[in-house]
Amino acid sequence: MHTPTRLFHLHFNTPDVSGAEARLADHGLPLYRRFGHIDGEFHALEADDPTPKGFRLRLQNAERGYANITLAPGTCPHFDHLGLCTSEFDAICDRAEDAGWSIRDRDGRRTFIMTPWRFRVELHPNGSDVEAALGSWDKGHFERVELTTPETDGDEPTNHEFESVFGTVPGLSIRQSDDVQVPRFRLDGSAFSDAAWVETVALL
After folding, report:
1. Average pLDDT over residues 65-86
2. Is 114 exposed, middle or buried (0-12, 13-18, 19+ CB in 10 A)?
3. What is the pTM for the complete model shown?
4. Which of 17, 47, 133, 172 is the most exposed, having the fewest neighbouring CB atoms within 10 Å of its CB?
């Protein structure tokens, strides 16, 4: 997939992590890793590792190919951020700064850009260790992701404002609604038998 910017990641909070994990697996996106703490000490667990006594889950990843979904415990279902890999990392950061959007940890391992619509974008340059850890695009990727955002006071529609900073992100569709949500997404690639829609209301 030779496009400047590619969507690889969605992050959700949910009160039912184990249930969401099972439903993602049913859609062909299996558990990859868990991350958490035991008595304040950080631990990373592979999918097949038994859960140690006292383990407090912070988040976990489901992954296949270039598609990664993070599930984190939360009091109610909530979409937190999406992740992009790009060959235009510096240009995107510069445009975000020019637009007055805040950027956290631009020179660090995980750069986050806060948009005006109450969701963040995790941004990685091509060749970063995060991208290198992903699998093949042909094996699995987000073929389509629907994102809804609330209206702002800006003159431009949300998708135009978003693209003015991030450029075109293939497969990402943005429309206005009452809240920030990803109502559904579709996975594709050789690891999936079909490209069926995954409805996140039922998932989370």
Report:
1. 96
2. middle
3. 0.93
4. 133
CA-based nearest residue to 79, from 179, 178, 188, 5: 179
Domain region containing 57: 5-203
In 3D space, the residue among 161, 170, 189 whose CA is nearest the CA of residue 98 turns out to be 161
Contact 151, 159 (CB under 8 A): no
Domains: count for the chain: 1
Q: Average pLDDT for residues 180-200, to the nearest whole number?
A: 91
pLDDT for the residue numbered 2: 60
Report, as an integer, the average pLDDT of 167-191: 93
> How would you list the strands of the sheet with 141-149, edge to edge?
172-176, 141-149, 181-188, 197-199
Query: Among 30, 74, 70, 34, which residue's Cα sits nearest to residue 52?
Result: 34
Please report the pLDDT score of residue 195 as a whole number.
77
CATH number at residue 161: 3.10.180.10
